[in-house]
Amino acid sequence: MIDTLAARIRQTIDAKTKPLGSLGQIETLAETIALLQETTEPTMRNCTLVIFAADHGIALEGVSAFPQVVTGQMVLTFLSGGAAANVFATVNGVTLKVVDSGVAGKPMSHPQLIDRRLGAGTASFLTGPAMSAAQAQLALDHGAACAREAEGDALAFGEMGIANTATASALAHKLTGLPLADLIGRGTGLDDAGVQRKLAILTRAVARTGALTPQEAMAEYGGFEINMIAGAMLETARQRRVVIVDGFIATAAAVLATKLEPESRSAMVFAHHSHEAGHTALLNVLDAKPLLALDMRLGEGTGALLAWPLLKAAAAMMTDMASFEAAGVSNKD
Q1: What is the mean pLDDT of residues 40-63?
Q2: How confident is the model at residue 331, as a pLDDT?
Q3: How many CB atoms lie within 10 A of CB 96?
């Protein structure tokens, strides 16, 4: 059935009033959406961005240019509507939700804040596991629950957490075997000396363990928010909804998701090519071609929000654009 459906989808795209392949990645995107929804008339009516926020014990080792307190401050900024993610979500008609996955300090209270808190941040994985195996599994479960509760033909997942690029680098290294040096970048704005210090600290941290299963890796080196994003991606894929993957950290979560359930890859659309070092390597692992390249590295789901209009356009091309036959336009054949 799938082969027949795939042929009908391709035939529908090729029959539109355009030269074959002339819409480039939009055609590929339309095909991905149509295959996922199992129809030649896909819909992309609405989207929700869920931002998961958590802190990381590795931040205390000096791998970030900003202190942990910034995570909680940014959560409040999201809730008040003042962040880049809020602006991009509003202009593109995307619903935005914020989840406390484990922000440092006392629990925050806000009527719009979703509480999926697993603690006041992870432990430092320099000296021991970031979290217990039970917490790692609970993070996946919480992420899946957040996906089930979010409306949309497509879901995007953002993150906030000081030192989460360090966590993503260490986790991705353990999941893929890629050299750690290829996965480490400036994060929140480290200078050259800071990047070298980050590499040295993470090199010591990953040497603490040998080969790990994905389940072991996400407990040893994961973040509460990264693991929740992976769980949310898995649930979204199971529901045959589109997963819009943001930048480096979200892509590290996507690597984790595909290691746990390889079939989830077919639901993923990659929004943009992050300027953060390491993103290219992870995109290559996933054989992913992002839609945009804007030299962004903010996170928060901002790249995913900018890609959302392209998904709407791709679906509309399938349903609203005339075929040669319907329009009475002569094809070259």
Answers
A1: 97
A2: 78
A3: 23
56 touches 167 (CB < 8 A)? yes
Task: Classify domain 47-310 by CATH number.
Answer: 3.40.50.10210
Contact of 144 with 226, CB cutoff 8 Å: no
Q: In Å, how far from its chain's centre is CA 153?
A: 16
Q: State how far the Cα of 214 lies from the Cα of 218, in Å rounded to an integer.
A: 6
The residue extents of the domains of the chain are 2-43+316-325, 47-310
* d(C-alpha 162, C-alpha 169), whole Å: 13
Across the range 78-99, mean pLDDT stands at 98
Q: What is the mean pLDDT of the chain?
A: 96
Query: Maximum CA pair distance of the chain?
Result: 70
CB atoms within 10 A of CB 166: 29
DSSP reduced 3-state for 260: helix
pLDDT at 1 over 80: no
> Would you say the pTM of this structure is higher than 0.85?
yes
Structure-token match 């802190």, residue found: 55
Active site residues: 300
Q: State the Cα–Cα distance between residues 181 and 173, nearest whole angstrom.
A: 9
What does CATH list as the number for 2-43+316-325? 1.10.1610.10
Q: For residue 168, how many other CB atoms are within 10 A of its CB?
A: 35
Q: By the 8 A CB rule, do 194 and 178 touch?
A: no
State how far the Cα of 283 lies from the Cα of 257, in Å rounded to an integer.
14
State both tokens at 24: 């480039």
Q: How many CB atoms sit inside 10 A of residue 323's CB? A: 14
* Rg for the chain, CA atoms, rounded: 20
Q: How far apart are CA 254 and CA 240, in angstroms?
A: 16
**Would you say the CATH fold of 47-310 matches that of 2-43+316-325?**
no
Give 147-163 pLDDT, tens digit per residue: 999 999 999 999 999 99
